[in-house]
């Protein structure tokens, strides 16, 4: 397969990005597999009682998802006011949960308009497929509003200074 340069300059392939996500998910599932009932699952999911789950999420799952979304992202997007703005997986999240006038989530990052992804991005194809599937199942309603509210709350957290931290917090909020 074609080898690409990652954001840190390390070579990676699209398949390696998917394997990293799959491996992280397997580790999280294995963490919960010892639970025999709902109470034990809740305890295993509480990072105060089980610090391992926090480590798994923050050091395996979140970075793997960040890398997948970041793959192929153009470095900048056009901005009417500032001319250009740096792209990041967090900006993809913000664009994905942007609401329209009637309050429904528009559901697709606007790469059709300002194209942060080149023609063949793995993350762009995966994200477009997922958002199309989600719209087909539940195009509007309280769940889409919840995504917007979660994004808005994460964006307002002053201690989260980097886009990576905001992306990770959003993923943790989704898992809550």
From TrEMBL:
Matching Gene3D superfamilies: 1.20.58.900
Highest rank taxon of the organism: Eukaryota
Protein name: RUN domain-containing protein
PROSITE patterns in the cross-refs: RUN
GO cellular component term of the entry, any: cytoplasmic vesicle
Record domain RUN: where: 52-176
């Amino acid at each position: 397969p074609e080898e690409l340069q990652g954001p840190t300059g390390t070579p990676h392939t699209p398949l390696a990005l998917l394997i990293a996500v799959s491996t992280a998910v397997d580790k999280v599932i294995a963490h919960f597999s010892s639970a025999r009932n709902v109470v034990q699952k809740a305890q295993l999911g509480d990072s105060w009682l089980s610090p391992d789950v926090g480590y798994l999420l923050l050091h395996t799952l979140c970075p793997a998802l960040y890398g997948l979304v970041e793959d192929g992202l153009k470095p900048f997007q056009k901005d009417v006011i500032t001319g250009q703005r740096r792209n990041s997986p967090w900006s993809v999240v913000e664009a994905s949960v942007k609401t329209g006038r009637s309050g429904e989530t528009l559901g697709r990052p606007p790469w059709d308009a300002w194209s942060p992804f080149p023609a063949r991005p793995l993350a762009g194809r995966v994200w477009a497929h997922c958002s199309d599937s989600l719209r087909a199942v539940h195009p509007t309603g309280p769940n889409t509003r919840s995504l917007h509210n979660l994004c808005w709350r994460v964006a307002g957290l002053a201690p989260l200074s980097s886009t990576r931290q905001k992306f990770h917090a959003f993923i943790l909020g989704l898992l809550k």
